[in-house]
Amino acid sequence: MRSPYTMKDIKLPEIALVVLVGPSSSGKSTFARKYFKPTEIISSDFCRALVSDDENDLDATKDAFDVLHFLAAKRLKRGKLTVIDALNIRKEDRAKLVQLAKDNYALAAAIVLETPIKTAFERHAGRTDRNFGKAVLEKQFDSYKRSLKSIKHEGFGYTYFVDTSEEQTIVRQPLWNNKKEEHGPFDIIGDVHGCFEELNELLQTLGYLVEKLPDGHYHVQHPENRKLIFLGDLVDRGPDSPEVLRLVMDAVKVGKALCIRGNHDDKLQKYLLGKDVNLAHGLEKTVQQLTNANKEFKVELKAFLDSLIAHYVLDNGNLVVAHGGLPEEMHGRAAAAVRAFCLYGETTGEIDEFGLPVRYNWAKNYRGKATVVYGHTPVPTVEWLNNTVNIDNGCVFGGKLTALRYPERETISVSAKKVYEEPVRPLLPEEPTQALSAQQQQDDLLDISIIKDKYLVETGFGNRVIIREENAVAALEVMSRFAVDPKWLIYLPPTMSPPETSPLPNFLEHPQEVFQYFRKNGVNEVICEEKHMGSRAIAIVCQDPEVAVTRFGMQQPAPGIMYTRTGRRFFDNPEHEQLFLAEIHRALTASGFWEQFHTDWVCLDGELLPWSSKAKALIINQYAAVGTSALNGLAQTETALTKALARGIPVEDLLHETVAREKAIADYVTAYRNYCQETNGIAGLVFAPFHILATEGKIYKDQLHTWHLEQLKNICAFNQVFLLSTNNLLVDLNDEASVKEGINWWLEMTEKGGEGMVVKPLEFIPTNKGRIMQPAMKCRGSEYLRIVYGPEYDLGENLPTLKQRSVKMKREIALQEFTLGLESLERFVKKEPLRRVHECVFGVLALESEAVDPRL
Amino acid sequence: MILEITTTYQPATDLGYLLHKHPDKLQTVALSTGKAHIFYPEASPEICTACLMLDINPVELVRSRKSPSPTLQEHYVNDRPYTSNSFLSSAITKAFGSALNGKCNARPELVDTPMPFTVKLASLKADGGPELLEKLFGPLGYATQFEQLPLDERFPGWGLSKYVNLELRHTLPLKALLSHLYVLIPVLDNDKHFWISRNDIEILLQKGQGWLEDHPEKEWITRRYFKNLRRYSNEALLRLAGEEALAPEEPENAVTLNLHQQRLQKAFELLKASGAGSVLDLGCGEGKLLKLLLQDGQFKKLTGMDVSFSSLQKAKENLHLSDAAPALRERLSLFQGSVTYQDERLSGYDALAMVEVIEHLDEERLPAMEKVVFGLASPPTIVLSTPNAEYNVIYQKLQAEDFRHEDHRFEWSRPEFRNWCEKVGEQYGYRVSISPVGPEEPEVGAPSQIAVFTKK
């Protein structure tokens, strides 16, 4: 058979569903193996074998094709070229595959193998793995030939007829929309609609040099070599579409600008091609303005419009520009549905009271990584939603012409000189401006899908944290039942590891091992901070209660919040919370904090003392109960033993043990009593902050711990009743005397009943050879450990037993939580959607439910 | 941690024969964890005291445990090595086994001889108040005396602890004394720490033989012995009453319906009346409402959601979901979720039920729940109940254990509930009708209140 369509090169788009067509024994599998990767090929025989262990089991055909479609859909969804090795000789079979490609926004290509029936018969006769007769093969050839007539009109973007006896060359072509190698910086400009004057002014404002050459052409150049991106709709409605076109075409031609297609540009092209279009919606103005244009311009214009692509994927996939916006699954795809979305945005078919299509807000559901910049629907102000932004501010309707600077994410606008056209729908919203931004309104509720199953958080500190489903299960309960409104939860503190156990006979923990850990990790100097005998507390303080609404998206103004390490409100009594926050606020204000840090809120990390204020129930029910029952029981035992000993019964050893246990219990009682101070309302409570975590637009991870403590000391000085600065000591790990001093400092504190100390390298995020290490390590005092390991932990063989513990898991979790915590703050200050913050915070809670020895 | 048994029976040293422990020796027996020592601080013909000293190493106790306890701090800082409750029964069996079983080969006549005894127990945990001691030991003829320990003398404000030094006096055979202690001492401690098995029923019946049947507190003792595990305690009670155990499940009829069941019954009726074919039970807990709904063919699709994974596990067991037939699995499913998160799985039902759920949410989180349930899931019918705070005065007359759930974040009076219902109904377009659940008392109303929201 001779085909008129045979070509040398087989060109295929990089994302495509390639359908091989040909009867049995026409050489499809051989062809596929020769030109495609094994993983790219899905063969019906293979799928039949997968479900039935038999390639020829015709009973299994339906299930086999279910598998084939499923696999193909998964691959296409991931943007992978996929080859279908099946007969595909019937039109209806191919139609299903074309639909599959469409559903997954991929192009379909057909490769028809033209093998003479004689060759097929010969091959068939030589095969032992095919159990059907010649008649079947003949029938296949008939349907094959019949279908060849229609194949060009079945929706395949590409159709090739291939003589398998000839060598072929397959060329994979990148899609036109793929401009991932362009990194900017860009200035992205919304719908111009012929507003030349405003465009010119905006370009000047952005720093472009715009020069009109004597021949009418433009020369556009930015001193820092920035590039322009036009979001389409250059024409219609406005006063001077030809001039806008002139400028954009010239800039695009020399690579100073990119331009995507808008629906108005598309319509203009149709008009210029002589198609029947309705001269309305501003096109009539453009047509009018073009009457005087010379022929050369029109030819150039036609070529320009023809070249316009519906969307671009830029900057390694981090930026997508499309006139009407674009959901994630369509990024980088070429399909009719993708093009339609780009041009017209998403519509439901509904019409509003102005007769305009109701826009379905795809951005609400957008969860992609790429920033999507779009226009098309005029909006009064620029508002980010889920990493998407519409910058069409309706210049032609008397609004503004707006540019977005990327990667800076700043917008610059110029106002329209006049209303060139009355908008059908009023540009300004009728309802009063909402206190909450669109993002905050959407963030009012978090969707459970973000945390329901196992998920991954990329932390931007070089690690990714996996949150496992079993941990999320526990965290969901805690988060739902006990935690404060997620809008306040911008951070949860990480857990902290103790050192390896001490080889010294009387110590479970000792600073020696802490210092050794950091020395081994290349740290020269550490800061030892007194470990406060309180509960970890996060304080968010607003300069003005309104900030709770405007910045945090709360429904009601509030002075801030204090919450625990698991996200529970610290104070049961709201009045106490307000009073205490007022005390912190007073010190911040008096110290000039708001001005110094250019902020109207702050998030502080610290301890709230005494411990009994939060843990009173635990102390009474657990610690005091054990103390009193043990002291009494042991005392009575001692009495009985003493009497028995007097009778000559050999109970000396028992008596000695009992007395030693009594002493241990007494020490334990002393230890827990150190944590108990009566408080009355907020009187007696003290907050000891040690990190300034974040203020507006900024987190303080680059500042040394010495900086944090110094700043905080200054603030604490302004309220010495309710705030406490943290005692600390710098230790030079290479100086034996300094290390000795550190150890003595710890001994002194802990012998007096202190909890111990926290040792940190000076850097907030300490690294060794590029790897992040434990940012802090606690070293707890021997007396305090009685509360943790039991009153008698240091008696007899108990200490050696208890020294068998491993801190490895604890350290891994500590690091993961630490990076998650910083990531959540980072995301919050960057004003990312709440779900992005929440997945980090939720992750910390989930990791805390990991089964790690709770005494570590 | 120490039990002292003193007798003035003449000769008092006969106690040594009865206990099979020589008065002049220190003897030690091994327990499953730790040891018990037996020694005599005094042993003369006039007066003889035997001591059973528990020697439990708290660190070993934790390390030797097979399954890790879920509660955190409890591990090492624990009262168990120091109280006289948890390990005393097993120590009595190990150390005084023959005496407990009434065996004394050397002096068989002593076994049934009543002797004057004084028993001292140091640091005995008495959960439920020391007055319980009199209630438990009084009917058996003991004179009781106790001293309650302060929690911490440095902090008198903390009050008294649950621990007492108890002294009991009575004249009775040693065998009876030991069996009383064997059963009643662990019962006093609500945190009983050994695994409860069907075998324990036999033990209780055996040790309680001859006295527990007639004890006025036998129901409470049995219940507590099985740590309020109804199934076992009912069986044990029935057997104490001389009957063979029947089906472990309680028959449900109008008389035995307790408040919770009445509430579920009411919710069931309201859901039934709404005509709903599919119901989602939000906060389904252990699946009691679902179980009720399952029995009615009107409900073609039933789903339970709870935030607690462990509750769901129990629901799965109670509803026998894992081995259910496909038809049932199609009809009934469970999933973990939270009413404070938007969740597409909540959509598409004819009715949602929230029985005694909202009071477990912080009041400030209610708007989120309202949006999720009324605004987004927005089913035709919502049946929602919550306790009536006004009724609590009636509860205060009841026993401590019957108090309302300690996790309640708020409890509303009838007007408060009505206001909230009307506000939510107004906001989300629902008509609401409220009815009481349980016996109504003058002034305060019924213990619970249930609302039906119908979409306008």
From TrEMBL, chain B:
<dbReference type="InterPro" id="IPR024740">
    <property type="entry name" value="Hen1_N"/>
</dbReference>
<feature type="domain" description="Hen1 N-terminal">
    <location>
        <begin position="1"/>
        <end position="241"/>
    </location>
</feature>
<dbReference type="Pfam" id="PF13489">
    <property type="entry name" value="Methyltransf_23"/>
</dbReference>
<keyword id="KW-0489">Methyltransferase</keyword>
<dbReference type="Pfam" id="PF12623">
    <property type="entry name" value="Hen1_L"/>
</dbReference>
<keyword id="KW-0694">RNA-binding</keyword>
<keyword id="KW-0460">Magnesium</keyword>
<keyword id="KW-0479">Metal-binding</keyword>
<dbReference type="InterPro" id="IPR029063">
    <property type="entry name" value="SAM-dependent_MTases_sf"/>
</dbReference>
<keyword id="KW-0949">S-adenosyl-L-methionine</keyword>
<protein>
    <recommendedName>
        <fullName>Small RNA 2'-O-methyltransferase</fullName>
        <ecNumber>2.1.1.386</ecNumber>
    </recommendedName>
</protein>
<dbReference type="InterPro" id="IPR038546">
    <property type="entry name" value="Hen1_N_sf"/>
</dbReference>
<dbReference type="InterPro" id="IPR026610">
    <property type="entry name" value="Hen1"/>
</dbReference>
<comment type="similarity">
    <text>Belongs to the methyltransferase superfamily. HEN1 family.</text>
</comment>
<dbReference type="InterPro" id="IPR024026">
    <property type="entry name" value="3'-RNA_MeTfrase_Hen1_bac"/>
</dbReference>
<keyword id="KW-0808">Transferase</keyword>
<keyword id="KW-0943">RNA-mediated gene silencing</keyword>
